[in-house]
């Protein structure tokens, strides 16, 4: 069902499952399928899973795996393998498609001109390229709800800033290398900022607390400054 998985010890209470070395959407989807299955069908001693680009870490309670001849790692690894073998053959589920409005350039995207210049494009061409491809959420990290998005065109790839900003407004949409992402909260960061969304990506009072989840598909679309402020005002009124 799945490609070969390599298992490694991860500290005294973890299993690092390695699915390969080359990042791909197909591989990442497998990782999230297994992660979801283990969380929905936990074994005795299971704590949690931590999915990443090409790996899945399973944390467990070693006190639940005491044996005179076998290590806790071996026993827990066997439990994981048994759970994976019991997965339904048609377990794959398509991620949601989330449309993200973005106001590009100006004060919202102070690095849009830099990205355009670096790639020998106009600002309008950068926006067009950024909005015409669907991106894939490989993982959340760095800050609560921060999506690492793959699938962006290499035509608008740009290096991180040489000196990170001390404060980036929440909702800022950035580029780092061939990845794009969205800052869910105000935080320091070094990505090239090309725009900002009025959507709240981190909502601590809701369940789940993040707008996006790993495995989702993201479609960006452009809005005007007026539409941005109107959207923001509507959200403030609802609060």
Mean pLDDT reading: 91
The largest pleated sheet is described as: 7 strands, mixed, barrel
Into which percentage range does the β-strand content fall? 25-35%
Distance between the termini: 47 Å
Q: Shape, please?
A: elongated
Low-confidence stretches: none
Question: What does this molecule look like?
Answer:
The chain has 239 residues and is an alpha+beta fold. Helices cover 26% and strands 28% of the residues.
Which descriptors apply to this entry?
239 residues; alpha+beta; 7-stranded mixed beta barrel; 4-stranded antiparallel sheet; 5 helices; 13 strands
List the helices and strands and how they pair.
Elements: E1 6-9, E2 14-18, H1 25-40, E3 46-51, E4 55-60, H2 72-85, E5 97-104, H3 112-118, H4 123-132, E6 135-140, E7 147-150, E8 165-168, E9 172-176, E10 179-182, E11 187-189, E12 192-196, E13 217-222, H5 225-238
Parallel strand pairs: 5-13
Antiparallel strand pairs: 1-2, 2-4, 3-4, 5-12, 6-7, 6-13, 7-10, 8-11, 9-10, 9-12
Précis, in short:
With 239 residues, the protein is of the alpha+beta class. It has helices at residues 25-40, 72-85, 112-118, 123-132, 225-238, and strands at residues 6-9, 14-18, 46-51, 55-60, 97-104, 135-140, 147-150, 165-168, 172-176, 179-182, 187-189, 192-196, 217-222.
